[in-house]
């Protein structure tokens, strides 16, 4: 039987008309941007699948008084590529190289945006760490540098302090920060219920299936995981000519691997990649690991480097943390549980390394 009516609705790229579970954050951000009469920077931080991209794109759609631009910084990591996307004008020639390249890029950007009400959303902005560019500095200090007023929104898995240099951080000053918590089962139920209503045939699925998907995805707190599980379950039911019910969901879940974005791994340093590999190849890693296990893998690692590594993989949505008491040095030791199967993560690392996406520097 036919289960899927519109496969595009079940895609991760689909942007729904209504925002579920993030209405308050979206309204807060809209009010902050609309109420500011100066260049301002806004940061929306959250783990993968917590609604950052949805908020950013909905913001641009609703704030129609602004000249709005969305840029995915994982796809566009260089200043030139980002400025080209913002200007969206093939007739404008941007300099390739030269000592005055950055200054020329800034002059062109400011000239083209002058006299406009500008709003720029940089998604996956943590991907800019290794590019060592000046785009955030230029956009956040545009008025001070002789350019137009620009409202800048950074969407990121990491706090700006983890991927921006000191001069850029100084430039954005006291930015407005919005943190997104992970979705609970109730939010996930509403999200995938809406997707099912639009993307699946009426009568082809049960409410019990939607409830079970939200329960299975709650541990991840990610709408991406819930939506992907809905899609996989619908495909499973359709290929077997059965209803999408709880049993179909459970069968599909057996071979389910949560979606893993390349951007979740992009900021790992070379030694962190090696450490992650060693960790994933450890015995019983499926049962979780402790901070002391990291010390056992690399006895020379400093506490600061260890906690930076753990923080990076935590905010990337690869692991989940829970405190368990005193650690090896008398402090609090944490236990971490993998949110992605070790084999899947190892395979992703290998593919990215072959593609040259993990430079480790």
Please characterize this protein's 3D structure:
With 361 residues, the protein is of the alpha/beta class. The chain folds into 3 domains: 7-14 and 183-254, Orthogonal Bundle (Helicase, Ruva Protein, domain 3), CATH 1.10.8; 23-180, P-loop containing nucleotide triphosphate hydrolases (Rossmann fold, 3-Layer(aba) Sandwich); 268-354, Orthogonal Bundle (Arc Repressor Mutant, subunit A), CATH 1.10.10. 43% of the residues lie in helices and 13% in strands. It is built from 14 helices and 8 strands. The protein has helices at residues 23-34, 52-62, 79-87, 101-113, 135-140, 166-172, 185-199, 207-217, 223-239, 246-254, 270-280, 291-297, 303-315, 342-354, and strands at residues 40-46, 67-72, 118-123, 150-156, 176-180, 289-290, 319-326, 332-338. The protein has a 5-stranded parallel beta sheet with strand order 2-3-4-1-5, sandwiched between helices. Strands 6-8-7 form a 3-stranded antiparallel beta sheet. Helix 5 (135-140) links the parallel strand 3 (118-123) and strand 4. The longest helix has 17 residues, at 223-239. It is globular and about 60 Å long. The chain starts with 22 loop residues before the first helix and ends in a 7-residue tail after the last helix. 38% of the residues are buried.
């Amino acid at each position: 039987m036919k289960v899927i009516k519109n496969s595009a609705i079940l895609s991760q790229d689909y942007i729904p008309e209504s925002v579920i579970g993030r209405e308050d954050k979206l309204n807060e951000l809209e009010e902050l941007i609309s109420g500011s009469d100066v260049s301002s920077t806004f940061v929306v931080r959250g783990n993968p699948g917590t609604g950052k991209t949805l908020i950013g794109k909905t913001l641009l759609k609703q704030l129609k008084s602004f000249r709005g631009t969305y840029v995915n910084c994982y796809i566009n990591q260089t200043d030139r590529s980002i400025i080209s996307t913002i200007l969206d004008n093939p007739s404008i020639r941007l300099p390739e190289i030269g000592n005055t390249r950055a200054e020329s890029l800034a002059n062109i950007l400011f000239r083209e945006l002058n006299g406009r009400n500008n709003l720029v959303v940089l998604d996956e902005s943590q991907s800019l760490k290794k590019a060592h560019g000046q785009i955030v500095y230029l956009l956040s200090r545009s008025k001070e540098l002789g350019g137009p007023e620009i409202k800048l929104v950074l969407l990121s898995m990491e706090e700006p302090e983890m991927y921006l240099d000191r001069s850029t951080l100084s430039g954005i000053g006291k930015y407005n920060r919005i943190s997104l918590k992970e979705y609970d089962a109730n939010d996930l139920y509403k999200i995938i219920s809406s997707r099912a209503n639009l993307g699946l045939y009426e009568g082809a699925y049960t409410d019990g299936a939607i409830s079970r998907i939200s329960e299975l995805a709650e541990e991840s707190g990610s709408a991406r995981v819930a939506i992907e599980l809905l899609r996989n379950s619908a495909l499973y039911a359709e290929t077997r000519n059965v209803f999408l019910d709880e049993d179909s969901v459970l069968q599909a879940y057996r071979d389910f691997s949560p979606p893993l974005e390349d951007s979740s791994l992009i900021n790992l340093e070379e030694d962190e990649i090696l450490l992650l590999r060693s960790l994933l190849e450890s015995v019983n890693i499926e049962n979780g690991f402790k901070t002391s296990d990291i010390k056992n893998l690399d006895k020379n690692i400093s506490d600061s480097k260890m906690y930076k590594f753990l923080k990076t993989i935590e905010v990337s949505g690869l692991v989940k943390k829970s405190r368990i008491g005193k650690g090896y040095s008398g402090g609090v030791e944490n236990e971490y549980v993998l949110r992605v199967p070790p084999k899947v993560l190892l395979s992703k690392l290998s593919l990215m390394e072959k593609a040259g996406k993990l430079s480790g520097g």
